[in-house]
Amino acid sequence: MTDAMIEIDGLTKRFGPFTAVDGISFSVARGEVLGFLGPNGAGKSTTMKMITGFLSPSDGKASICGHDVVADTLAAQRQLGYLPEGAPAYGDMTPRGFLRFVAHIRRLRGAEADKAIDRAVEATELRYVLEQPIDTLSKGFRRRVGLAQSILHNPPVLIMDEPTDGLDPNQKYEVRRLINNMAAEKAIIISTHILEEVDAICTRAVIIDRGHVVADGTPAALMARSRYHNAVSLTLGENLTVAAAEALKALPGIASIEVIPRGTETTLTLFSHQQGDTSDIAGEVRLIDAVADLVREKGWEVRSLYGEPGRLDEVFRKLTRPDTHVAETPRKGEAAA
Amino acid sequence: MNELIAIFRRELAGYFATPLAFVFIVIFLFTMGAFTFYMGGYFESNQADLSIFFNFHPWLYLFLIPAISMRLWAEERRTGSIELLLSLPVPLWSAVLGKFLAAWVFSGIALLLTFPVWLTVNYLGDPDNGAVLAGYIGSFLMAGGYLAIGSCLSAITSNQVIAFVISVVVCFLFTVSGLPIVIDFFSGWAPQQVVNTIASFSFLTHSQAITQGVIDLRDFIFFATLIAAWLVACGIVVDMKKAG
Fold first, then answer.
1. With contact defined as beta carbons under 8 Å apart, do A132 and A95 qualify?
2. HEC string of A136-192?
3. How many Å apart are CA A167 and CA A239, to the nearest integer?
4. A90 and B86 in contact by Cβ < 8 A?
5. What is the pLDDT at residue B36?
6. Is B2 close to A55, i.e. CB distance below 8 A?
7. Contact A105 B88 (CB under 8 A)
8. In a 3-state reduction of DSSP, which class is residue A217?
9. What is the reported pLDDT for B243?
10. What pLDDT is recorded for position A239?
11. Taking the mean position of all CA atoms in its chain, how far away is CA B158?
């Protein structure tokens, strides 16, 4: 990839005998929003700290716009906006003072600095708290101060460690919109625990576990690894009768059915034999069509009917849980009960 | 240079954004006055100079300067803002120097606010104001020495209390290294050369002449070298922490 703006090759970090990040490699091109996923302690933050020059790698290389972060740290950092985990800032300063400080360091002066600050303040909607000490701001505002700082100099590369952590749904929406608006002209890495976010803003996702990359692909490709991929979800507005279940089971191509009663509704997940790509089975009747026909024929009251694209949380668990194959074993406590 | 100025300004403003500056300056001035006029018997001495005043400076600095320096790096590490600072395009030396200079200027401001003592001595008698100026310069240099030590020790921990205690101990050793408490420990077994070297690190010895109003180039070089050495050490510590 020639237009890769972030390049990471065999990046490794050891803390004493513990290897936090073990030979991670990937690259991010302009226009890509890379979702960086993994359980707590998988090495997400450590990787980001190495890319941004805060930690030095034990091994491997990372470069920003062609500048090596170890050999040419300052040049790399000039191309970079970074929101560290928890959005730290100088609490005794006001957002305006803080952004001025960062602008000064970023060598923005006079009118140019004012313009940059206005733009960042606008994008993060900080106007009404500009003169309050950062320490007195709510978590959401503090996060936005961190965001404003990271985009102040309109950097070609953005790295954000959990940018929406602790925000309410409205604020999350705003931050995602902000990232989406910038996405076309930048290379962005965001780490997150919120899987819906990956689907909402990321063009690509990398999952790491215990310092290793365990998956790297588009959200759709990752979801295709889910056992729910191409399954059909049907919610009926009545308690399911045995007869209805039998009728569904008799549909061609059904492998199994999961039934979850919820109040007066029943949700059924129908798994087809075809777990792969639906495009190969164009000749056959798609399962969802068959189900729709059956529903119409029987006159059931349908609350929802949709084909599942796959579930990221399930893929995430499958890839990052070390005990995938013994998942059925009862955990401590449950065994005693 | 640009980054240094930005950091210097931020740090200096930081002292005044919190009650820290106010508390520090009030306590500094109060203890300075109390020591000089009561414990030092300034009026009873009947001398129109400030040597009694300056004689107390090393001992006051011993506790008050680590109180300024302890936060320099430890607080950044505790709040996580160090991650922000070190991921901004800031050369390490300008961060180290900018923080140190801000603290030094702050201690200089506190020192300048002792000017009523100077007014008093001029009102009461006819002192050698050149000697008074030399005393102030010497005191300022000494404050820089303590600050450089404190700055480096603040970088090794994220706990300000630890930074304070270690700084006080190390500053104390530097202060008294010319006195029997330290010299006697070494003189029994160490070669005379070593003992002399240790004794030569004493802040007291180097500030003695200055408080008398004599600025010896050697004393000046001593403090300049000491500050430079501890700041380089501070940079090395900060850089080493990057390795985890």
1. yes
2. HCCHHHHHHHHHHHHHCCCCCEEEEECCCCCCCHHHHHHHHHHHHHHHCCCEEEEEC
3. 38
4. no
5. 79
6. no
7. yes
8. strand
9. 81
10. 66
11. 21
Q: For tokens 């960062």, what's the residue?
A: A102
Examine the pLDDT at B111 and tell me if it is beyond 80. yes
Residue among B85, B87, B88 with most chain A CBs within 10 A, to mutate: B87
B132-187: per-residue pLDDT in tens? 888 888 889 989 999 999 999 999 988 889 999 999 999 988 888 877 777 777 77
Q: How far apart are CA A41 and CA B241, in angstroms?
A: 20
Asked if B240 is an interface residue toward chain A (Cβ–Cβ < 8 A), one would say: no
Q: Which of A167-181, B45-59, B139-153 has the lowest mean pLDDT?
A: B45-59
User: Among residues A187, A179, A184, which one has the least CA distance to residue A157?
Assistant: A187
* Average pLDDT score over residue span A35-58: 91
How many other C-beta atoms lie within 10 A of the C-beta of residue A120?
25
Question: Which region, left, alpha or beta, applies to residue A31 given φ > 0 means left and ψ of -120 to 50 means alpha?
Answer: left
In this predicted structure, what is the pLDDT of residue B99? 95
Chain B CB contacts of A58 below 8 Å: 243-244
Can you tell me the distance from the alpha carbon of B51 to that of B213, in angstroms, rounded to the nearest whole number?
Answer: 8
- Tokens of residue B21, six digits: 């500056």
- Which residue of chain A has the CA closest to B92? A74
ipTM entry: 0.86
Instruction: Check CB contact under 8 Å for B81 and A104.
Output: no
Residue A285: pLDDT band (50, 70, 90) is low
What is the model's pTM? 0.85
| B186: Cα separation from own chain's centroid | 26
- Using a CB-CB cut-off of 8 Å, the residues of chain A touching B244 are 13-15, 55, 58
Nearest CA in chain B to A86: B80
* Cα separation, A50 vs A28, whole angstroms: 15
